[in-house]
Amino acid sequence: MSYSRHFLDFQGSSIPSSMKKLVVTKLSQNFREAVTLRQDSPVPLPGDGDLLVRNRFVGINASDINYSAGRYDASVKPPFDIGFEGVGEVVALGLSASADYTVGQAVAYVKAGSFAEYTVVPAKQAVPLPSVKPEFLTLMVSGATAYISLKELGELSEGKKVLVTAAAGGTGQFAVQLAKKAECHVIGTCSSDEKGGFLKSIGCDRTINYKTENVESVLRKDYPEGVDVVYESVGGKMFDLALNSLATKGCLIVTGFIAGYQNPTGLQPIKAELLPAKLLKKSASVRGFFLNHYLSKYKMALKHLLEMYERGDLVCEVDFGDMSPEGKFTGLESVFRAVDYMYMGKNIGKIVVELPHSVNSKL
């Protein structure tokens, strides 16, 4: 079917027939080795219930390199698309999708294949937005992970002590704020005084710069009874340390283990042989959290997060890489730099790449 018959175009701009996108061409946790920038991929056609979204902002996640290494689904063979989330505007849509969406509407989505100029998104998976803003992108995976995991597993209540590792990162920033809203005492680990300053600005009660302070001795000295909840995304030695810092009946929530993702196995060793004894001694628990298993809670979580942001009750910190050596992350070419930047531990907030284009451009 021709473009003109199948599409409703956006403000008279031309949808090109080809586009740039990132494709995993070799399985590897080394993102630069695994991923290729394709210059002339065909722009996909939306089906009856689909939207064609022109991506304006795409999010960088620690798990991008797990995805490029094929760790999510061992049966998938390259080439395949990559990138978990995007924000942009609808430029075309199928007939059924037009019942709920219009051309020009701002939307966000979580779906593999966002590292592209255009992505087809099922209308049912899209989230309508008041405008195209990068802050909305921070909520899609990072914010929702913190919100749902703490609500479902954290059993937060007034006065509980909550330790957040990598607290100034994409998801850590939300764990800190949501724990504070539950009137908890929040401790956040980070790697610089600048990050510590950011954490204080969003309500963190005690920041620990692990480059200049010994986290274990600080926790032992300042929190001799231990901490009630740990929001843990680092893994390796930080996991061991967090486990040791749990209070009686404490809960450690594992949302990731970024310290290991760059290894061939994707793992960083922990002292697991002592785990049963440590848990028994404290009646403590370790809970894993993977967002895909909680999709029934997702829409409500996102609704609440969006409302909080719109009311000014939630800081959604975005890091465009302005302070990175080569400057702001602009265009799909810069996704490679953005992933490097994440693994250098430099970001404050969520790393976002902007894909600029004017309305009337043919790219």
UniProtKB/TrEMBL annotation:
Q: Which residues form the Enoyl reductase (ER) domain?
A: 30-353
Reported EC number(s) for this entry are 1.3.1.48
Pfam families according to UniProt: ADH_N (PF08240), ADH_zinc_N (PF00107)
| PROSITE patterns, A to Z | QOR_ZETA_CRYSTAL (PS01162)
Output the superkingdom of the source species: Eukaryota
Give the molecular function GO annotations: 15-oxoprostaglandin 13-reductase [NAD(P)+] activity
Record keywords, A-Z = Acetylation, Oxidoreductase
Q: Which family, according to UniProt?
A: Belongs to the zinc-containing alcohol dehydrogenase family. Quinone oxidoreductase subfamily.
Name of this chain's protein: 15-oxoprostaglandin 13-reductase
Q: Which organism is it from?
A: Grus japonensis
Q: What is the lineage of its organism?
A: Eukaryota, Metazoa, Chordata, Craniata, Vertebrata
